[in-house]
Amino acid sequence: MILVSLIAMPILYLTLELPKQIVNNALDSGRFPIAILGQEFDQVVFLILLCGLYLLAIMLNGLNKYGLNVFKGYVAERFLRHFRLLVYRQWRSDPDSRNQSEIVPILAQEVEPIGGFAADVLTLPILQGGTLLTILFFMFVQDPVLGAAALTVLPIQLVLLPKLQRRVNALSRTRIKEVRQLGRQLSDQLRQRQVNSAGLLPASASFRELEHVRRKIFRLKFFIKALNNFLTALTPFLFYSLGGYFVIEGRITLGALVAVLAAHKDFSAPLKELFSYYQTLEDTRIRYQEITTFFTGSIQRSGKAQADNPKLEEVSQFEEATLSYPALSVKRQGAIATS
Hints:
Blueprint: H1 2-26, E1 34-36, E2 39-41, H2 43-92, H3 103-118, H4 120-142, H5 144-150, H6 154-192, H7 197-249, H8 254-294, H9 298-308, H10 311-324, H11 327-338
Antiparallel strand pairs: 1-2
Helix pairs in contact: 1-2, 1-4, 1-8, 2-3, 3-6, 3-8, 4-5, 4-8, 5-7, 6-7, 6-8, 7-8
């Protein structure tokens, strides 16, 4: 996945350079016929050639991203299956029955984002960070001032957004605890096989508190998104003003300015992806910490339980084998059904 991510960088540079060549060279009628590799081309043929190369670069870029995303999905699902089995084994070896009702939201909801993030933990910063650096390099090649203008609002984003994200992280931790509390209440009511007015009040309070927390999260997340969009939209203003002045003065060509504007449109996308990566990284870290906190001390308890019941050791060894050989679980289930 890292190799495929790195291959995307030269392809991306071609998609940025070819439009500039089309505007500056293929549309310049005073330079034809033009000789390339010993062969002469008129204006129309040269335009078709450059457009064909641009189309090929777009197709290669799309195929590269498609293959990378498909393989990332396979890796994420494999990791998720392993992680769920490990969490399930740890929960089953815990003799403390008070935590049994909380395993359902953990296996169904809390591990899902962790598994989905497993494939992105390395490839996303390499792909999006490399995309960002490639676009910046292209901008500085066209004009250093325009390249510096693209970095004007970046320090503001790097200072404000992490501070706001930390507040979102605290609310996310509170939301996870509220969901678990709700799961305990519902499990207790199911065991009692009755729902009376005394049981409705705590559940209603949990519903209300969960809604309150999620509203706070939504407000902060959308504020971060709006602030990021506003700061990103300030850069084209500098491009139109400074870049337009440079074109009038003859410092850069019109094709270079058009290419820089198109590159900045692509520049904002990886920047947003990197900020989203940071948010997802923090959210995943919190979820993983909450899961490990849930099982604090369970390793010692499971060791004591295995000493009291040797059959648990046999089951643990069987689950260890199914991580590498999933077909063993089918054979084991068939043997149990036969017996």
